[in-house]
Amino acid sequence: MPLGQLVIREVKAMIRNPAFIASLMFIFLFYGFIGGVTRAGISQAVQETTRLDVGVVAEENNQFVELLINGLNTSLGGGIKVYPSIDLALNKSSYVIVLPRGFTDNATVGRPAMIWGYAKINDFSQISIQAKAGILQTIASILSKTITQTISILNNISIPQERPVIINQNIVVFGKVMSAQQINSYIQVVTALIFILSFMMGLTTSSATSITAIEKVEKAFEMLLSQPIPRRDIVIAKIIGSVIMAFVTGFIYFLAMFFMIVQISQPVASEPNLVATSFNLTIFTPDFIVFVIISLIIGLIYSGAIGVLIGSISSDERTASILAMPITFLYFGFGVAALFISMPLNIITSILYGVLVAPTIYVLAIAKLSNAIQLVIISLASSIITCIIIIAIATRIFNSDIVITGIRLSLIQRKRADTY
What we know:
The structure is a single chain. By secondary structure, the chain is an alpha/beta fold. The chain has helices at 3-15, 18-50, 63-75, 86-92, 103-109, 126-155, 180-217, 220-225, 231-269, 286-313, 317-341, 347-356, 360-370, 373-398, 402-405, 411-419; strands at 54-58, 81-82, 95-99, 113-121, 165-173, 176-179. The protein has a 6-stranded mixed beta sheet, with helices on both faces. A hairpin with a 2-residue loop joins β5 and β6. α2 (18-50) packs parallel to α11 (317-341) and α7 runs parallel beside α10. It starts with a helix and ends with a helix.
């Protein structure tokens, strides 16, 4: 048979499998939903830029500062209020600009004028954080122009160039003040942890599905099931085996990626002009690391149980791999979407994220900032209960004939059966 006909044969076999079509539709619809959620997050961030509620704390009281604040208020379209302290300003406003002592001298003589900026957020959306940090930078740029105009008004002279303004950006998250660099680094670490968890869960599901489906195709199931072994033990053994396989594969993969990054970045790190930035956060405490490890273990068992379940109901290896593919994308989708949805973290959402497992890292990140560790415990408990339910379902299937025959989804075979 020519190569072209072989290729056509394989494509036809894939198209005739409803599981393949269903998986494609599922991926399309699911990521369309994720795109809609992301767009909603972006729209929310854009709306934030149109509602400037700025409070100003001036540690100096002179004519220059008064004119400067009036000019800034005019440039921003009103809405600026002056407060005596930072705490009061943060309580009343979403953005706070602090003009420290020595600001007037630096601004009037042309030296860089340092100011402090605070942006208050009530969620952990990456888009919101980036948008509000951008607004602080925009205010600093407007302030630079306003300084020039104020000096011109006071001295009745024309200054051709803007005066430099350096803003020290700070983000207030759930009452905690963090620099923009810290919060961005925190988000990057959380995103990386979500990616690692989702990636490892995808590997485990694929491994468990392959282990189960291949044994079924090779007719090894009949021999295994004929042994006086509890079906529950067979399910648990397959889950543990897939977890070990995925863990070893993932460890080698990330170790190789680490060495690759080190090799790439080594010449750059030796440049004298680049200074490595330190990342010191008290948030990454031992209990945080313990919770991450627990989430990883639960996620591997959870995804392994799903893989065994998929393999047990599949009639052949091809169908099993097709069904496992969208599940892997699902882990990534739910994990990343949590960073954009900005759902308020409470008992209900903690349970929901626990059922999905991958977003538990997101729950941990917010709970650590808001001192709501009980929500992490609720989320992990929800994950454990979900794991037990999935293992129970897989055990139930292993006790039925479906584990041998599988669920046949082929429309062609149905039509043939109806014909006979």
